[in-house]
Amino acid sequence: MGEVGETAWHELLIEPLGVRLRVSAEQPLLASARAAGIELPSSCRNGTCRTCLCRLVRGQVSYRIEWPGVSFEEKRDGFILPCVAYPMSDLVMDAPGVRRANASAP
Ligand code: FES
Questions:
Q1: Tens digit of pLDDT for each residue in 28-49?
Q2: Ligand 1 lined by 29 (C-beta under 6 Å)
Q3: What pTM was computed for the model?
């Protein structure tokens, strides 16, 4: 779903919530989700604590930090850190801890 222009946009589907978002290639996934009212588990938001670790089912992301806290094997198996991952294509992400920000607490 990329567009010609200054900023590339992609579609992100977050499971198991089944929510679809339009995300900018210039913003980490966590920030884009938050801006759309979707909360993913997070803490440090700089790629070190791994609280946000989840699996990318489809698509590609890139990192702008030297070595995000995800191992080679985890990367190979599709795990990403959405707090520092930038979308490079349309994505499907499996994030069991995802919830709507305005959802009332149990
Ligand atoms: S929130 Fe800490 S690694 Fe993503």
A1: 999 999 999 999 999 999 999 9
A2: no
A3: 0.90
DSSP the chain: ---SSSS-EEEEEEETTTEEEEEETTS-HHHHHHHTTEE---SSSSSSS-TT-EEEEES-EEESSSS-S--HHHHHTTEE-TTTEEESS-EEEE-TT-EETTPPP-
pLDDT in tens, 60-95: 999 999 888 999 999 999 999 999 999 999 999 999
Q: 55 in ligand 1 pocket by Cβ < 6 Å?
A: no
Domains of the chain: 24-99 (3.10.20.30)
Q: Is 45 in the pocket of ligand 1 (CB under 6 A)?
A: yes
